[in-house]
Amino acid sequence: MAANTRPASRSSKAPPPPKPSKTERRQQKRKQEVDELQVLQKRVDEFDPKSTEAKTFADLPLSQPTAAGLQASHFTSLTDIQARAIPLALHNHDVLGAAKTGSGKTLAFLVPVLDKLYRAQWTEFDGLGALIISPTRELAVQIFEVLRKIGRKHAFSAGLVIGGKSLKEEAERLSRMNILVCTPGRMLQHLDQTAGFDADNLQILVLDEADRIMDMGFQTAVDALVEHLPKTRQTLMFSATQSKKVSDLARLSLKDPEYVSVHESASHATPSNLQQNYIVTPLHEKLDTLYGFIKANLKSKIIVFLSSGKQVRFVYESFRHLQPGIPLLHLHGRQKQIARLEITNRFTAAKHSCLFATDVVARGIDFPAVDWVIQVDCPEDTDTYIHRVGRTARYQSNGRAVLFLDPSEEEGMVKKLEQKKIPIHKVHVKDKKKRSIKNSLQNMCFQNPDLKYLGQKAFISYARAIHLQKDKDVFKLNELDLDAFSASLGLPGTPQIRFHKGEDVKKIKNAPRQGMSSGSESEMDMDGVKKPRRKKDEVRTKYDKMFERTNQDVLSSHYNKLVLDGDGKGAGSDDDDAEFLSVKRRLNDDELDEESKKAPVNAVKVIEGLGGKEPFVVDSKRREKVLQSKKKLLKFKGNPTKMVYDDEGNAHPVYELANEDDFKQEGPAEELRKRFVEGESAKVKEADVDDKQLLRERRREKKAKRKAREAMERAGIDPDKADDPALPQLDAEEDVDRGAALDFLRSLPTDGADRRGEEESGREEEEEEEEPPRKKAKKWFQDDDEDEQNTSERKSKKKRGKVFELEQEPETLEDLEALATGLLDG
User: Fold this and answer.
1) pLDDT band at 267 (very low <50, low <70, confident <90, very high)
2) SS3 472
3) Considering only Cβ atoms within 10 Å of each terminal Cβ, which end of the chain, N or C, has fewer?
């Protein structure tokens, strides 16, 4: 009984519940996501941005992936602009945000972008959902990097479209992107040219640094870009200096936008932890002051702002040669995209460095731990000043900024900064910190023409920029000492500048070059002398232009003397003999009639006796040029036969086909053929005789040299040292007597064939024309059969013994003795 008992608990236990299928699990997950979205939407609706005050991201009604991405990126606290703008954007309001530089505006629009697409359950099949536009490539790259950090928990696809890469490669990926960070021009290019790409489903449009995007530089591109976007969308605009123009808001189709600004509650528009100063220094001392400042702050991170890319290049190259003792970098809009990104990364990672840059990095770029911002050139307005100094003192860190002002700029610029509530104080440079680099720049420009060229371009670009500035209360070109400024750049003289009055800077940059070349009533030559503007009806040949050229090269003064010298004489005058260049053909004075000699230089000349049917008329410089050409004079004379000239300058007629009637008049074709063959045969025989005679002379010279060498060897003299005066020389009379005796022996009859005359010359000719044996081509490998064959050939050669090859038949007793001695020794 006991053996058959079993535990009662096993029989009473309930069976496990069945596992849900894949379809059921998928439905449960979808229901859970819908419930979470409903809860999230309810939190957003209940959150009142005006009454509720949020201090951290956790206080905001954000989705779980967004909150997790912010936490992983170590973003916890909210800045003022974030606390006020994000709740409004989450409620689908259009927002105009204005805040100080470094206040966190990037997160203020990236967080609403991610949450809006998340609540809409956006997928890659829905197309483009968010478009973020930036004015510069560097700022677009920075926005994209922040988007990747905080959006790492989302499943959206994001892309960067800024140019500098292949348009085709970008177009292949655009159709799969949900979020795009771009620059206006490149994005418009894709919307116009990329097939299958559209923005019809766009949910939200963001404009970072909106005031810069809405100005004249991007107005056309933005207007064309907005036409591709749907009207029902949300728009966010952020900048440190926001625009409230009704026209701009209407262009972007904003609907009751909410204006968020943190400037009004603050005492000034720049961060309180930013120390701002300005220095009054004349224009020609700015580079000296800058170099002294850099030498005094070698353990700092500095950004130096200049007004143009040409100035950036010149200052960078000059200071690089001076080697101040700190790593130098330069950045401007003309550089390739790869170089710009590399320089940006290098300066970001550097601990101590100096970056020379234009306003391309003045907006939005977040360089960490920048100690100094130096503005060598005065900014065009207060907004540009605010953006420039905003590269330092970011996120509660301290920073310092220095503005260089010319005495003519001080009053106007300081007054405008005070109107914007920007605290700035005047400071002076210590005398012991001043350094002069004028002489060093002059030496470098003298030794390096490329640096001198950059200096000239930098001077011109700065002068034009000052001339085209609209604010004439600050920028006064007439009060600047341009000559001293040119000398401070190391230039030997002040470059000339042509100004275009009443035109905008950007219009001039984009204007065609054809209209800019003749914009003034008078033109300048290379020496700075004004030339009268020529009439439209006046025709100038290339020779006229050649004669007008001056100061072009070292031969320019001699061009006029090819035809007419300075005294008005002809090219055939006696004074031309001493000139550097001489004409190929000169006409004698006898060939010119008396009237043409007495005529003035520019009068029409008539020359008789040149062989033509009519007199030769010289009424232009081109006709005077004809007198120096044999070919053109023959054409003028009416020579019916084409001529070619040999090396000696003699003319020969070219064979031409005659007409059939003329050919028949010359006689029967067979007689003409025989006559032609006989004439050509006679020419060939004459040439053959000359060639044989030349060949005999060469043989005699070779034979004489060989005999001289043999004689020297018999006398015990090394032929290679025959010119040494210390060695004994052969008696010339003895050598002549020996040669006469040998000639007498050769004249005697012999039993063999006669070696004199043509047979001897023929044999020697065959010996000279005999080619040397060809070398076998080398191989990288060799078969076994070839190896055995080569071995057998070497053995057979050994069995044959020695073979003597005579270069020539022995002719003297000494030759026979030498041959016999060689055979006995062998």
Assistant:
1) low
2) coil
3) N
For residue 367, pLDDT over 70 is answered with yes
> Amino acid letter at 88?
L
pLDDT in tens, 214-223: 775 677 888 8
Residues 6+ away with beta carbon under 8 Å from 67: 57, 58
Distances in Å between the alpha carbon of 242 and those of 269, 378, 421, 693? 12, 22, 16, 100
Give the C-alpha separation, 793 to 385, whole Å: 94
Which residues, at least 6 apart from 819, have a Cβ–Cβ distance to it below 8 Å? 806, 810
Kindly list the structural domains of the chain, giving each domain's residue range(s) and its CATH number in brackets, ordered by start.
31-261 (3.40.50.300), 274-436 (3.40.50.300), 439-517 (no CATH), 546-674 (no CATH)
How far apart CA 770 and CA 579 sit, in angstroms, is: 55
* DSSP secondary structure letter of residue 359: G
CB 407 within 8 A of CB 399: no
CA-nearest of 268, 269, 270, 275 to 398 is 275
- Per the rule left: phi > 0, alpha: psi between -120 and 50, beta: everything else, 658 is beta
**Rounded CA gap, 508 and 676, in Å?**
74
| Gap between the Cα atoms of 36 and 500, Å rounded | 64
The dihedrals phi and psi of 536, each to the nearest 5 degrees, come to -70, -35
Q: What span, in angstroms and rounded, lies between the C-alpha atoms of 189 and 195?
A: 11
CB distance 66 to 111 below 8 Å: yes
Alpha helix locations (H) across 47-174? Answer: 64-72, 80-90, 105-119, 137-150, 167-174
DSSP code at position 602: T
